[in-house]
């Protein structure tokens, strides 16, 4: 078992590294990025000098070659000259280019393109000395934000958003489990009953409903329409109010009190909950129906167990085994899956942060979130497999 | 009612199996090393004579099905040779292999998965001729109708799909499909064990009729000894990947030399309450292929096990004329 | 042979269990009558789909949706099981009557230790404390011949062979010394040598505990070696019923005869086997008249018209011998004698 | 005597032979909601197919001063009716909705077709030949499937939309796509990129499904029978595997249709998909959302068709799955 976990941990590190390389390459190889705007200003009225450009390129580390940049981002090295036993290694190997030579060339289609054809001034390891560098993402240092919170550590940004996301998703996951499992079981046990019929229809509607449209509908129905009709309403977005507000029939609510925060939680939590209840309970129902067909359920009945025990002791335990996967994998989507909900309800969480970072080309922030998601995903996979050994005696790893 | 024993005037070996081996491995550990090795077929040799039926019996997991599949190279063997009319089919490839394969066909146990549900059965029967480019379309069609009638089905059944047939009818179609290539040798892999009792006899009779008509040679694999006795000329008994006894049918049933065969024979319930027998009940379960007992593989369950059996595996040899066995009791 | 003037422990009368499917009503069990006497083994034999398993599930009232018991009476220990409440029935199952199944490995819950699964019977019916129930379970496992029962009780079903799993099932079924045990193809999924072990075990425990057994199987050999009396089922009905010696010595019904002729018998080699032509009828669209008539050689040979129009009754055709066939029915007796004469 | 009885043909005869597909359709028809959905989708496809003929206005026709007209408003000058009103620029919402539908549905349809083809091919090869190729492919697929897909979708489409020339696309394809979606070539590039992004991530499930089918089919004895008759890999894949795997692939495709309609809308809604002024249901929803405080009906106009399509394709998939259920006798 320990050997198995050790092997899995090695694999996990590999997977995380590969995904880090892939996302880093995707974000950094593509042209564009933070320089796009500057280039236009340069061409415009020549307000920005070539030296400025070089300085900004150095600031974003864009003057370094990709492997070097990646290595600095990942582990915080190299930081300067590499000296082993008195000799300096790679002293004359260029690791980047401060001022590329650009030339307009005509491509095969006859269009004119700007291409990098050479380098005026190389960057060497010794030039790295004195530059600001993170300790590396592997050690938990995500570097500094480019845009959203200029020059401030990405970790600050994430730490301020993380509790909000956990609050939102934790609550809705809990509610979904509490509602989804019993509903799914009941519906399966009462297959073909009126309840089952209504429930499956609703669950079907729920799982076919796109989150973004559902969220907008919720805002319409519980916020905009009642507000304009002078009825009690819920705030349509954000996590807390800025100033006190009056809700008809309920009263005045002070900003940032518990009541205020609860009011703001209701809509996004309900939206997320209903969507996952719909799909989870459908899953539980299907897996329960499958289990109820099994021979051992018949044995349990033939033994003289009351139907309640047959369901809760013999069937449910087996039906939950595949369900574990789904629940465990909702952990990584803490950070990814809530993008839409958080955007619609202007919820200051990780999903919305990611959305903003992408829109503003704040790559360090986007990279950090993707990296965290990848790590969480592989951890979730390991947890799932370990949980399996706990709940399913047929599975033993060696 | 007992018929006279079939005598072979010219006993020509159509199939010779020599030292056939098929090992399965389980890998594990950090470097995925081979942890254990299951010898599903372990050094098995036997002959099948032209025109005879050789029965192969054994309990589940003894390797009888694996023998059939490796002989046709549906599973790649670990070692050994299989000769068809003197040609080692494990050395052949491409066209030569395909040419020999036509002569060796197989009928499967499960009548439900053995036919492609999306193909009309006529197409399924003609498929072999299409693959091997035998005859024109018209000739293929005529041949198909011919074999369909041979197994007791009607012409119009060719257009139907497998789901429209019962288990017994599907098994007939499976036979027709094997027959369409005009093979000389057919491996019948538990062809009746999935069928109802009253349907079993229909299929067994068809197999016998066809053998007579076309001079077919069968390897008949089954776990039901009564069925094997009924259809076979000679019978081989397998236990844990090895043949423990092989003899003419009557010889085997009236003079079994291996204790396993004796136990197997006595364990079969006889549908006649008037017959009272002393049953030899074997203790324990069949051991795993991946962890077979040392020495004679049967010794932990054998009522006659001696010290020697624990240490050394008995040789498989011809004890009496045409009667092979592997047991120290006969040495 | 058991004495038949004893009170039967189980009386089934006119049992009808139908399945209401989209394609129509499947008459899986359609008017079944039989008695089971104390300590005897009644063999219920027939091909797949003849209704033998549904009959047994109906006795325990375990037929699930879309199946339903539509008619009949099942008298057991002085009560009509079909009029009991669900709670009364639950108290009956596993306690006074129990059942073992064809696939022992899938019939055990994969996530619980076998010791716990056996002990559960004591905790639910006898309210024994956990520890005591476990000890009793280990004792039982030992009784059914599980080697090293103390340790094996901690094993999970997937760690056991089919034979051992069936022993566990038997231990569970016989834990509370029930009056009635229903064994539904208990040896079909097992190898021959293991089948012999299980057959011996059931016979031995029957002697020890005096349990009455309904043994369901399609294997006439198993019936011959184990049963005291036999009922042959075809298309949802019993077509013949007799003591085991009587049935094998003098089968009446053409179906029974066909069945016996169609199986190869060890040591009796024949050139050809007899054949029952065609296949089992569709239980939704049953044939008119006698359900076996379309496949019946005797009908064709004797060209009997009545078989195609009217289903015969199950009537006494000999001492303790019942048969559902016009050849043996009162008016047709002569024809039956004729057949018998031809057959000898 | 035995032979004579043998020859009595007593086979259960059926009135006529029924091909498996016909049987499937017969079962599918029983699923009422699926049949209704099929009808609804056919109508929707027809409407978008004749977008030019049906839409009363041009897709970007702006009438100055006619901002935010209520549904059913009549232009005083011309007497033309804005069935669903107009948007913030005075464009006719009904017409835009139809053109948007054409784009959204085409994007979803092409994505499904491409991803299914890629998935089926890779899955079939992976499953049939096995070995290290299979191992590698499936590890990659599994990894991508466990990561939440929306962030990946967003980042890739964000990157591609910023550098639209990063992936070379043959001119004739762009023209073809433009014709299909009634777009200019320049605009079509965006749509094609979105299709590539959706299909590029979407083939994973199809590949896994196909591989699973191939693996289970490989153990079916009819495949062994074909091998025993001398059939090679290509014959077996083409004649046995693909026809038999079609059923679940089709179910998967119809459910994927729903997913792609929603995914495209989500991308456009978040601003990382097809951009204004090209109308799609997603970017229309995102545009109308801003004004829902005053005109609460606005988001319903593009939102309902998205929901409708998602629901309809889910029902169709559900109906197909029921009709193709292997547990039922086929």
From TrEMBL, chain A:
Its main location: membrane. The lineage of its organism: Bacteria, Bacillati, Chloroflexota, Anaerolineae, Anaerolineales. The chain crosses the membrane at residues 12-30, 168-189, 201-225, 265-284, 319-345, 365-387. It is found in: Cell membrane. Belongs to the binding-protein-dependent transport system permease family. Residues 162-384 form the ABC transmembrane type-1 domain. This is ABC transporter permease. Keywords: Cell membrane, Membrane, Transmembrane, Transmembrane helix, Transport. It is a multi-pass membrane protein. One of its GO terms (cellular component) is plasma membrane. InterPro entries: MetI-like, MetI-like_sf. One of its GO terms (biological process) is transmembrane transport.
UniProtKB/TrEMBL annotation, chain B:
Keywords: ATP-binding, Nucleotide-binding, Transport. GO terms for biological process: peptide transport; transmembrane transport. GO terms for molecular function: ATP binding; ATP hydrolysis activity. Residues 15-265 form the ABC transporter domain. SMART domains: AAA. InterPro entries: AAA+_ATPase, ABC_transp_ATP-bind, ABC_transporter-like_ATP-bd, ABC_transporter-like_CS, Oligopep_ABC_C, P-loop_NTPase. PROSITE patterns: ABC_TRANSPORTER_1, ABC_TRANSPORTER_2. Pfam families: ABC_tran, oligo_HPY. NCBIfam families: oligo_HPY. Belongs to the ABC transporter superfamily. This is Peptide ABC transporter substrate-binding protein.
TrEMBL record, chain C:
It comes from the Bacteria. Residues 12-260 form the ABC transporter domain. It is a peripheral membrane protein. GO terms for molecular function: ATP binding; ATP hydrolysis activity. PROSITE patterns: ABC_TRANSPORTER_1 (PS00211), ABC_TRANSPORTER_2 (PS50893). It is found in: Cell membrane. Transmembrane segments: none annotated. CDD domains: ABC_NikE_OppD_transporters. The keyword Zinc does not apply. SUPFAM superfamilies: P-loop containing nucleoside triphosphate hydrolases. GO terms for cellular component: plasma membrane. Keywords: ATP-binding, Cell membrane, Membrane, Nucleotide-binding, Transport. GO terms for biological process: peptide transport. Belongs to the ABC transporter superfamily. NCBIfam families: oligo_HPY (TIGR01727). This is Methionine ABC transporter ATP-binding protein. The lineage of its organism: Bacteria, Bacillati, Chloroflexota, Anaerolineae, Anaerolineales.
UniProtKB/TrEMBL annotation, chain D:
GO terms for cellular component: plasma membrane. This is ABC transporter permease. The lineage of its organism: Bacteria, Bacillati, Chloroflexota, Anaerolineae, Anaerolineales. Keywords: Cell membrane, Membrane, Transmembrane, Transmembrane helix, Transport. Pfam families: BPD_transp_1, OppC_N. The chain crosses the membrane at residues 33-51, 105-130, 136-161, 191-210, 222-242, 254-275, 295-317. InterPro entries: BP-dependent_transpt_permease, MetI-like, MetI-like_sf, OppC_N. Residues 101-317 form the ABC transmembrane type-1 domain. Its main location: membrane. It is a multi-pass membrane protein. Belongs to the binding-protein-dependent transport system permease family. GO terms for biological process: transmembrane transport. It is found in: Cell membrane.
């Amino acid at each position: 078992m320990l050997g198995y976990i050790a092997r899995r941990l090695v694999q996990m590190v590999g997977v995380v590294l590969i995904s880090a390389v892939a996302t880093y390459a995707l974000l950094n190889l593509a042209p564009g990025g933070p320089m796009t705007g500057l280039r236009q200003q340069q061409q415009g009225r020549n307000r920005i000098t070539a030296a400025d450009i070089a300085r900004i390129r150095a600031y974003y580390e864009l003057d370094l070659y990709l492997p070097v940049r990646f290595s600095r981002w990942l582990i915080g090295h190299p930081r300067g000259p590499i000296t082993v036993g008195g000799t300096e290694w790679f002293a004359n190997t260029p690791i980047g280019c401060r001022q590329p030579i650009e030339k307009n060339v005509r491509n095969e289609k006859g269009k004119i393109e700007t291409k990098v054809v050479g380098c005026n001034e190389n960057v060497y390891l010794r030039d790295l000395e004195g530059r600001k560098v993170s300790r590396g993402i592997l050690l938990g240092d995500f570097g500094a934000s480019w845009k959203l919170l200029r020059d401030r550590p990405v970790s600050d940004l994430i730490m301020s958003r993380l509790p909000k996301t956990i609050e939102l998703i934790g609550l809705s996951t809990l509610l979904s489990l509490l509602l989804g499992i019993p509903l799914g079981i009941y519906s399966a046990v009462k297959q073909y009953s009126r309840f089952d019929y209504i429930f499956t229809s609703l669950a079907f509607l729920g799982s076919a409903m796109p989150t973004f449209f559902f969220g907008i509908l919720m805002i319409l129905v519980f916020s905009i329409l009642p507000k304009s009709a002078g009825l009690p309403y819920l705030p349509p977005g954000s996590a807390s109010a800025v100033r006190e507000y009056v809700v008809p029939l309920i009263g005045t609510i002070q900003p940032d009190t518990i009541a205020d925060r609860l009011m703001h939680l209701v809509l996004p939590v309900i939206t997320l909950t209903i969507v996952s209840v719909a799909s989870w309970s459908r899953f539980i129902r299907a897996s329960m129906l499958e289990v109820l067909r099994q021979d051992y359920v018949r044995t349990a009945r033939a033994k003289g167990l009351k139907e309640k025990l047959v369901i809760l002791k013999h069937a449910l335990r087996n039906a939950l085994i595949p369900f574990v996967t789904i629940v465990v994998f909702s952990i990584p989507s803490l950070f990814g899956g809530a993008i839409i909900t958080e955007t619609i309800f202007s919820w200051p969480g990780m999903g919305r942060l990611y959305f903003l970072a992408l829109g503003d080309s704040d790559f360090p922030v986007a990279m950090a979130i993707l990296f965290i998601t990848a790590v969480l995903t592989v951890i979730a996979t390991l947890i799932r497999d370990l949980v399996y050994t706990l709940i399913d005696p047929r599975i033993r790893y060696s | 009612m007992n018929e006279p024993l079939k005598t072979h005037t010219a006993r020509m070996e159509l199939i010779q199996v020599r030292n056939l081996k098929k090992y399965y491995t389980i890998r594990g550990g950090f470097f995925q090393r081979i942890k254990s090795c299951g010898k599903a077929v372990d050094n098995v040799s036997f002959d099948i004579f032209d025109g005879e039926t050789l029965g192969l019996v054994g309990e589940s997991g003894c390797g009888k099905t694996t023998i059939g599949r490796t002989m046709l190279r549906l599973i790649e063997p670990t070692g050994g040779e299989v000769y068809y009319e003197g040609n080692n089919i494990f050395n052949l490839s491409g066209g030569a292999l395909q040419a020999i394969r036509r002569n060796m066909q197989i009928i499967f146990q499960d009548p439900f998965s053995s036919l492609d549900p999306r193909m009309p059965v006529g197409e399924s029967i003609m498929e072999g001729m299409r693959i091997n480019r035998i005859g024109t379309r018209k000739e293929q069609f005529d041949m198909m109708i011919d074999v369909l009638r041979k197994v007791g089905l009607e012409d119009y059944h060719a257009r139907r799909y497998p789901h429209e047939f019962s288990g017994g009818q599907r098994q007939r179609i499976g036979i027709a499909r094997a027959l369409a290539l005009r093979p000389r040798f057919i491996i019948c892999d538990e062809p009746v064990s999935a069928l109802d009792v009253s349907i079993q006899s229909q299929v067994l009779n068809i197999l016998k009729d066809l053998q007579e008509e076309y001079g077919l040679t069968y390897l008949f694999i089954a776990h039901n000894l009564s069925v094997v006795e009924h259809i076979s000329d000679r019978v081989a008994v397998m236990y844990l990947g090895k043949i423990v006894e092989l003899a003419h049918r009557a010889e085997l049933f009236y003079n079994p030399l291996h204790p396993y065969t004796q136990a197997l024979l006595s364990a079969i319930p006889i549908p006649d309450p008037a017959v009272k027998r002393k049953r030899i009940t074997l203790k324990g379960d069949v051991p795993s292929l991946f962890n077979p007992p040392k020495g004679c593989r049967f010794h932990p369950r054998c009522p006659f096990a001696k010290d020697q059996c624990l240490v050394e595996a008995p040789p498989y040899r011809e004890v009496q004329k045409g009667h092979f066995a592997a047991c120290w009791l006969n040495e | 042979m058991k004495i038949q003037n004893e009170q039967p422990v189980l009386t089934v009368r006119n049992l009808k269990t139908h399945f209401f499917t989209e394609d129509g009503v499947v008459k899986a069990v359609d008017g079944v009558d039989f008695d089971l006497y104390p300590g005897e083994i009644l063999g219920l034999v027939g091909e797949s789909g003849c209704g033998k398993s549904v009959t047994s599930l109906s006795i325990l009232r375990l037929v699930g949706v879309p199946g339903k018991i539509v008619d009949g009476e099942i008298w057991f220990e002085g009560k009509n099981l079909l009029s009991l409440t669900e709670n009364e029935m639950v108290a009956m199952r596993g306690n006074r009557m129990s059942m073992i199944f064809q696939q022992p490995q899938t019939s055990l819950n994969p996530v619980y230790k076998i010791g716990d699964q056996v002990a559960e019977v004591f905790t639910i019916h006898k309210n024994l404390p956990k520890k005591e129930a476990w000890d009793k379970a280990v004792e039982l496992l030992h009784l059914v011949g599980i080697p090293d029962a103390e340790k094996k009780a901690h094993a999970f079903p997937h760690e056991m062979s089919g034979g051992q799993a069936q022993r566990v099932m038997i231990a569970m079924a016989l834990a509370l010394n029930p009056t009635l045990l229903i064994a539904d193809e208990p040896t079909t999924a097992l190898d021959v040598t293991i089948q012999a072990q299980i057959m011996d075990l059931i016979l031995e425990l029957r002697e020890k505990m005096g349990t009455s057994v309904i043994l369901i199987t399609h294997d006439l050999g198993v019936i011959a070696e184990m049963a005291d009396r036999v009922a042959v089922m075809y298309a949802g009905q019993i077509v013949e019923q007799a003591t085991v010696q009587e049935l094998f010595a003098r089968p009446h019904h053409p179906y029974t005869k066909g069945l016996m002729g169609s199986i190869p018998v060890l040591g009796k080699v024949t050139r050809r086997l007899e054949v029952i032509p065609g296949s089992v009828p569709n239980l939704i669209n049953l044939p008119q008249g006698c359900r076996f008539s379309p496949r019946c050689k005797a009908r064709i040979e004797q060209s009997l018209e009545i078989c195609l129009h009217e289903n015969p009754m199950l009537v006494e055709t000999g001492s303790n011998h019942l048969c559902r066939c016009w050849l043996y029915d009162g008016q047709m007796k002569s024809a039956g004698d004729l057949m018998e004469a031809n057959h000898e | 005597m035995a032979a004579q009885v043998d020859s009595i043909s007593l086979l259960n005869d059926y009135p006529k032979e029924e091909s498996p597909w016909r049987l499937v359709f017969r079962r599918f028809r029983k699923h009422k909601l699926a049949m209704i959905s099929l009808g609804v989708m056919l109508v929707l496809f027809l409407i978008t197919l004749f977008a030019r003929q049906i839409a009363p206005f041009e897709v970007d026709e702006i009438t100055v001063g006619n901002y935010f007209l209520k549904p059913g408003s009549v232009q005083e000058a011309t007497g033309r009716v804005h069935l669903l009103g107009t948007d913030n620029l005075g464009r006719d919402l009904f017409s835009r909705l139809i053109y948007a539908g054409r784009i959204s549905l085409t994007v979803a349809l092409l994505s499904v077709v491409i991803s299914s083809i890629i998935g089926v091919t890779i899955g079939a090869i992976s499953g049939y030949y096995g070995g290290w190729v299979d191992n590698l492919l499936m590890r990659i697929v599994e990894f991508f499937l466990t990561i939440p897909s929306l962030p990946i979708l967003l980042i890739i489409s964000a990157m591609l939309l910023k550098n639209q020339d990063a992936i070379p696309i043959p001119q004739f394809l762009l023209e073809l796509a433009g014709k299909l979606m009634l777009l200019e070539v320049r605009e079509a590039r965006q749509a094609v990129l979105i299709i590539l992004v959706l299909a590029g991530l979407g083939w994973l499930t199809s590949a896994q499904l196909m591989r699973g089918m191939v693996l289970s089919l490989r153990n079916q004895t009819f495949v062994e029978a074909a091998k025993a008759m001398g059939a090679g890999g290509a014959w077996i894949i083409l004649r046995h595997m693909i026809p038999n795997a079609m059923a679940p692939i089709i179910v998967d495709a119809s459910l994927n249709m729903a997913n792609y309609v929603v995914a495209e809308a989500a991308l456009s809604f978040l601003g990382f998909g097809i951009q204004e002024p090209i109308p799609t249901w997603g970017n229309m929803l995102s545009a109308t959302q801003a004004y829902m405080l005053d005109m609460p009906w606005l988001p319903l106009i593009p939102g309902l068709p998205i929901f409708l399509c998602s629901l309809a394709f889910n029902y169709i998939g559900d109906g197909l799955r029921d009709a193709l259920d292997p547990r039922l006798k086929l």
